[in-house]
Amino acid sequence: MTNRETRHRELAEHYLPDALLARMRERAAGYDRENRFFWEDLDDLRGRGYLTLFVPEEFGGPGLTLNQVSRLQQRLASAAPATALAVNMHLMCTGVVAAMFARGDRSLGYVFEEAMAGEIFAFGISEPANDWVLYGSHTVAEPQADGGYLLSGVKIFTSLSPVWTRLIVHGLDESDPDDPRVMFGFVERSHEDAAADGGPGITVSDRWDVLGMRASHSRATVLDRASVRPERVARRVPAGRTPDLLTFAIMGNFQLLIGSVYAGIARRALEVGANALRGRRSAQRGTSYAEVPESRIRLADAHLEFTAVPAQLDATTRDFDELEDLGAAWPLRFVSARLNAVTAARRCAESALLCSGGAGFSNDHEVSRLLRDATAGLFHPPSMDAARPMYAAALLDIDEEATADSA
Amino acid sequence: MTNRETRHRELAEHYLPDALLARMRERAAGYDRENRFFWEDLDDLRGRGYLTLFVPEEFGGPGLTLNQVSRLQQRLASAAPATALAVNMHLMCTGVVAAMFARGDRSLGYVFEEAMAGEIFAFGISEPANDWVLYGSHTVAEPQADGGYLLSGVKIFTSLSPVWTRLIVHGLDESDPDDPRVMFGFVERSHEDAAADGGPGITVSDRWDVLGMRASHSRATVLDRASVRPERVARRVPAGRTPDLLTFAIMGNFQLLIGSVYAGIARRALEVGANALRGRRSAQRGTSYAEVPESRIRLADAHLEFTAVPAQLDATTRDFDELEDLGAAWPLRFVSARLNAVTAARRCAESALLCSGGAGFSNDHEVSRLLRDATAGLFHPPSMDAARPMYAAALLDIDEEATADSA
Amino acid sequence: MTNRETRHRELAEHYLPDALLARMRERAAGYDRENRFFWEDLDDLRGRGYLTLFVPEEFGGPGLTLNQVSRLQQRLASAAPATALAVNMHLMCTGVVAAMFARGDRSLGYVFEEAMAGEIFAFGISEPANDWVLYGSHTVAEPQADGGYLLSGVKIFTSLSPVWTRLIVHGLDESDPDDPRVMFGFVERSHEDAAADGGPGITVSDRWDVLGMRASHSRATVLDRASVRPERVARRVPAGRTPDLLTFAIMGNFQLLIGSVYAGIARRALEVGANALRGRRSAQRGTSYAEVPESRIRLADAHLEFTAVPAQLDATTRDFDELEDLGAAWPLRFVSARLNAVTAARRCAESALLCSGGAGFSNDHEVSRLLRDATAGLFHPPSMDAARPMYAAALLDIDEEATADSA
Amino acid sequence: MTNRETRHRELAEHYLPDALLARMRERAAGYDRENRFFWEDLDDLRGRGYLTLFVPEEFGGPGLTLNQVSRLQQRLASAAPATALAVNMHLMCTGVVAAMFARGDRSLGYVFEEAMAGEIFAFGISEPANDWVLYGSHTVAEPQADGGYLLSGVKIFTSLSPVWTRLIVHGLDESDPDDPRVMFGFVERSHEDAAADGGPGITVSDRWDVLGMRASHSRATVLDRASVRPERVARRVPAGRTPDLLTFAIMGNFQLLIGSVYAGIARRALEVGANALRGRRSAQRGTSYAEVPESRIRLADAHLEFTAVPAQLDATTRDFDELEDLGAAWPLRFVSARLNAVTAARRCAESALLCSGGAGFSNDHEVSRLLRDATAGLFHPPSMDAARPMYAAALLDIDEEATADSA
User: Fold this and answer.
1) What is the CA radius of gyration of chain D?
2) Deepest in the core among B22, C51, C53, C362, taking most CB within 10 A?
3) Domain range D245-402, CATH architecture
4) Model confidence pLDDT, tens digit, residues D17-54
5) Rounded to an integer, what distance in angstroms lies between the CA atom of residue B345 and that of residue B374?
6) Angle C179-C181-C187 (CA atoms, 0-180°, nearest 5)?
């Protein structure tokens, strides 16, 4: 007997106690309305050690598994989706290194050290019109004599833009035209630079007025010969679909932790919908809407669909933590878990909206925010349409390897 | 040969020429961003006689049919959804009277006269928690000695709130406890009162920050002994599901014209999606996204679903105009046409969003606005869930009459 | 006022009175179980003049419109889907000629004469692996000195195979390699040959054991230099997507009449589902299932979806009858009407199955047959997938003409 | 590192080697066509010890977990769905006892002994119109002086009817009107009685002509004072929703193993669909259909949906095996896993049918059988509609316990 559930409950109480969640849920409304970054949430999470969840005990952290962090992120997202989505990026960077350690590659241990030292990691992979995602880049990476790089290009949807001090980036090094390489590494800046929306060779866009996940401040970042020091160059992978442990670890952490955020939104939407039904009264039926069959069934159908989502995340994170070898099936598993979570979040939010009546149409109603936050789920790579070729190829192109355009 | 299509094209060019539509589409972005009423659009429409479309020739109007107005509203909504939705309310009031005339009831001719004289009509039927909609009311209607009424209650989603001078309302007259009546009539106010958000016994809420259809300014209206003059009392119908020509005409005009607005949104969303695909380039495929099969099929599926929507509106408005006797099937036909239009609008807008990539997530992108405007479609009565009993009863409750809780 | 509905009711009583429908519904079970052709149904229909519905008055027929025949076919299919589907093929041939007459092409008047004289027409267009459908053919058409043709090839899903005496066919004439032509014409055989599954150059397959629509006996037909007399050559159209009145008329009649059959199945499935609910009792609830909310809503949702289907058929057949010029939108309209009808038939049949409980799983239960018959709807050209490119092209390929791979 | 996948592969090769699966797949077509019981499959499975999978090592069996048996059943169903569905019933009985042992209740050890001795167990729970399923019964259970029972009533869908020698049944003991009890126990008969469709107080219906899962011969069983010996009375549970380890174990095994069968059908349907595409050629495109985007995407979408199904089964069986305490969430988890598997099976089979073209419409094509077999999934309790109240209650009825009407 593993008592996994007991352990999940203990971790929830330790890192995300009910009172904290309640505070965060209240703040989420204000962040959304004022289009403000989640400063107070970040302080609280940092204060509780939430940013070190993945750091192994040997580096001074609690060494949680992806399965455990997935659960915590579901819980966090049920209160503050944008906070959870943004913090995800930092967690992911550390989770990637943890996954590499577990598979014998200890080369990026400095990420753990820096995370313990208070650095904040973010993700600079998405670029305009780059549907190669991890396997290519429009960012120019100029190799330097010392082994470092200067990067120039545009990164989009850079969550945590007002606070990150370490940005994992990739760029294309075409210095040897016969052997183009995608390099991965970390751009660094100080907390002061972050606060000033800048840094050496770094400009953060001030445009940010989006439909949902507003508190994440995932603004565009322009790199203009931004430096990656030699000791922060993580990989130089041949361009194209080249298998590599780093990209595998990114894909797994990215898809499953993003999926966890939307699973949390879905769960919260069901609660909000149920509360709304209990609080509304039907003049025709003379009962609360919680007794009206059409409303009950609306919510039941969303709940039934939702039930699969945490189970799929659970199965997939456990296999990942347990180092199962699923070969070419891994990307199919990762991406499906995330896409299904997003679909459930959108469906549950819509059901909750229908349960809320016209009141839910106001931008300041929680259900409206959940619906808007859930819509952001359509934009994480790979989109449903970008994922389709991968699922077709796995069945139809026997000689080709099933690969994923997924971060 | 009827050449209906030719006539539709002529009407489109006369009332909504391309240049006007283009101006309105541009303004729509500003109205949405600034949460502003569509003042300039209203001036343009008024100037072209758009507010008198339903007025018969004998009263000096063009006497268009519901089929023709439905087409115009689809066209208008493709440029300015909120404008179309709000103007709908005025058109509906005149359309209701036209439908009554066509069926031999000429009692409300003053509506035509007033519409010709520049009065603006709006709809004061929806109330908080009143799922009886037309068949009951939480508004207290006190009969006066002269045959008039004083009304007290709250009306919600009153489109055109800054400009209406005539509000069709209903209220419950329980002065004879053995014979409760739902009265319908018109509350009147001057253009000056409208401009001041007030009027005798009338207060218009200043709260309005909603997800979509923002320019409609469908704010709540509080009636506090607001007067309906004796000659503006239209009906005194026994409370409950009592068949009546007025409520039948409201139901038909409401469902079919609202449906027309969402059909227009759907059509525009398909165009916006197609334009977006043509304008984006896939790094992986080396082509525009208009050549990427997954994107093409995404849009094709939305287009295929959409195709049914104008056809259903066409069939139903023609039957309505031609005075077909569909008996208890009428409400099923009306409501289905509107719900399907809303579903198509939401689906097409979502498809267009997926075609637009991350750019579409910005609140100032047209596709984002279309998605938000389409979402408003979930809130017109009857909602999908409120409609379900009607479709069940028509099959299962043979002795009961299939009726609709629909405005 | 047109009183279209009154006229529809009169036609229904004249051609398909209730008593006849009841007999046919009973027979349908037997035909399905015994995999037998609908001989008795055909006799009854022929006796009532049902095979001459489209024949104009000047040729001695009643001259019904496509709109009227669509309604009759919906009614017939509600009792005997396979009978309706097969008779459709004969009706279509005459409907095609009627549509050509209405558009000024009187060249195929002999079809009316022969229909009046008792000949039975069928459709020999579908071929294995020919997704050009009307625009190409794997059948070799050898031109003869007298202007006639000899055809060799395989036609599949030839409904009415035991009785047809006139088969509309197409084949590819490559005698001039620079100008390949698709010829259309009629292969003729006697009633005696039909009864013997043969005829000159004609062999009818004896393999026929399919999931649904079994009574239609749509067996494969092998042509081996089967003759088309010169005066029965209808067209010689350049191969590829060449606009032509004959193929346009085939497309319209085919899609809309096939759609009508599935609309009839859908309607009947709703009735069967409702009857099943009324006849079953829930031990838990102590009521009939007609009172159980989950069942009611199941049926309501199917009913709501269904409601659009006859409306779309109505709008499209009326536009077709009234000679509206919809240009490149016609194929989109035709195909959407048929696909939606099939989808509704399948959904309604599934809902009815769920309403019927385990009893419905027996092959001899009407609901099981309806479900199986509805499944046949997936195979009429163009399939959903074959139709997708047409709906994509209409939005994305502005310079190309939107065309349909549809028969 | 657990190497679960390696162990799954070893078990697959041991119990269900490829050559055996191929033989079974071939036989499945014949069983279906001839409506014949799967005699040869049963012999093969028995010969390999497949009927003792759940028997613990201390009783001489291999002691597999539910997680492992679920995988094997998925594999078996991919070749022979009806065989898998029927054998499921036997496996389930032994799995129930294994689950009880794991939770400390060793009272039904005789089931293991008898399974080792060659007895075949089946499930006699479903009854006409009994939507209480496990929590009530229309079967009369007369208590006998010796502590045994005589049972009279009708059991439906009794899989394995030609071979079972032990039938787990329930009946209502109302001998004390103030304390009605649902008794569970085993009716016994000899192999000879089974072969003769009878036994003491037992009549097996000879009616069996159903849409799918035909080889399971799940015929109705009439009990007329059939005996349950005192030592084979397993439980006497108060009527109604009374928590009990036996019913919990039945629910878990039933839902998850039934779900496994449909997961296997889904997986096979994807393969069949892919093979069909590779084998068909498009005249228009000049390629195999495996290169046609619309077909690829059709299959991709089904594959994507399918991917969640084995993951959900995996997560849920592991939690069950690991004795996690999920409390009131258990029934929600069990039923969702099964319903999603059925939905995926139906969707994948439909997609495969569309990939197969008209050939798939013949009853002897594998894809037709898969579609028909998948349809049987609609009839296992609880149906989607019967499950809805449970998912609604869990959100809306806080004080009530979420319970399942599930076997």
Assistant:
1) 21
2) C53
3) Up-down Bundle (1.20)
4) 999 999 999 999 999 999 999 999 999 999 999 999 99
5) 6
6) 155
This prediction has a pTM of 0.96
d(CA D372, CA D350): 10
Instruction: Please list every residue in chain A whose beta carbon sits closer than 8 Å to the beta carbon of residue D315.
Output: 311-312, 314-315, 318
Do A284 and B132 count as a contact with CB atoms less than 8 A apart?
Answer: yes
Taking the Cβ of residue B308 and every Cβ of chain D, the question of whether any pair is shorter than 8 Å is answered with: no
Q: How far apart are CA C369 and CA C392, in angstroms?
A: 35
The minimum CA-CA distance between B157 and chain C, rounded to whole Å, is 26
Measured CA to CA, the distance from residue D259 to residue B240 in angstroms comes to 48
Tell me the fold of A121-238: Butyryl-CoA Dehydrogenase, subunit A; domain 2 (2.40.110)
- From residue A23, alpha-carbon distances to A41, A53, C189, C217, C394 in Å are 9, 21, 84, 70, 52
Positions of E strands within B131-190: 140-143, 149-158, 166-173, 181-188
Q: What is the DSSP string of A61-105?
A: S----HHHHHHHHHHHHHH-HHHHHHHHHHHHHHHHHHHHHHTT-
Whether the pLDDT of residue A146 is over 80: the answer is: yes
Query: Rounded CA gap, C63 and B264, in Å?
Result: 37
Residues A326 and C351: their CA atoms lie apart, in Å, by 39
Give the 3-state secondary structure of residue D235.
Answer: strand
Amino acid at A138: H
Cα–Cα distance, B362 to B375 (Å, whole number): 17
Q: Compute the nearest-CA separation of D265 from chain B (Å).
A: 27
Kindly give the residue spans of alpha helices, DSSP state H, lying in B357-383: 366-375
Residue B277, chain C, CB below 8 Å: the answer is yes
CA angle B89, B94, B95 (to 5 degrees): 90
- Which numeric CATH code is attached to B3-116? 1.10.540.10
Is C138 close to D376, i.e. CB distance below 8 A? no
Neighboring chain A residues of B375 at a CB cutoff of 8 Å: 353, 361, 371
- CA dist B318 and B306 (Å) reads 19
| pLDDT digits 0-9 by tens, C292-335 | 999 999 999 999 999 999 999 999 999 999 999 999 999 999 99
Residue-range domain boundaries for chain C: 3-116, 121-238, 245-402
Which residues in chain D (120-149) have CB-CB distances under 8 A to chain C? 126, 128-132, 136, 138
Rounded CA Rg of chain A: 21
Can you tell me the ipTM of this complex? Answer: 0.95
C392 contact A CB<8A: no
Residue partners of B161: CB distance under 8 A and separation at least 6 = B122, B197, B204, B217, B218, B219, B221
* Centroid of chain to Cα B297: 31
The DSSP secondary structure of C93-145, one letter per residue, reads HHHHHHHHHHTT--TTHHHHHHHHTT--EEEE---TT-TTGGG--SSEEEE-T
Within 10 angstroms of residue D277's Cβ, the number of other Cβ atoms is: 26
Residues from chain A contacting residue C293 (CB–CB below 8 Å): 293-294, 296-297
Burial of C243 (0-12, 13-18, 19+ CB in 10 A): exposed
Give the closest-approach CA distance of B286 to chain D in angstroms: 17
